[in-house]
Amino acid sequence: MVGDDEGGYRPFVVPDHAKVWVDMRLTPPTDTAAAINMVEQATATAEAAVPGCHGSFAVTGDRPAIERDPNSPLLAALKRAADDVTDADVPASFFTGCTDTAVIAGKTGNRNCMSYGPGSLVLAHKPNEPGPCRYRSLPERAHRAC
Fold it and tell me: The pTM is what?
């Protein structure tokens, strides 16, 4: 979960109002209904604990959790291409969070989507993302194989 908050006008002063934004990146088996239930329970707990406190929330985005399909033809093609380029049995793994690929899969209903990257959040999304040049053609090779 990532988020942000806003409230008050200086440190150590109880504010008369506050706002919290929460970005819940759901993973199976948690779905939107379960997430709403969690927020409703947390709101009720806060209202009961602080007299005069009132909480409300709005769901402004609904990104469904996307489970990995081990029988995906795209995954199989990418794995074959990776094995071929590296001359090794390359492990395929998954990321337990929300990615652009998960948003695309959820919005289109096509679960045969995937991202390809260095396998490390420390290395991903950086200028000049590191990795041997021979690996950079893997997604293209997998696409042609499908």
Answer: 0.55
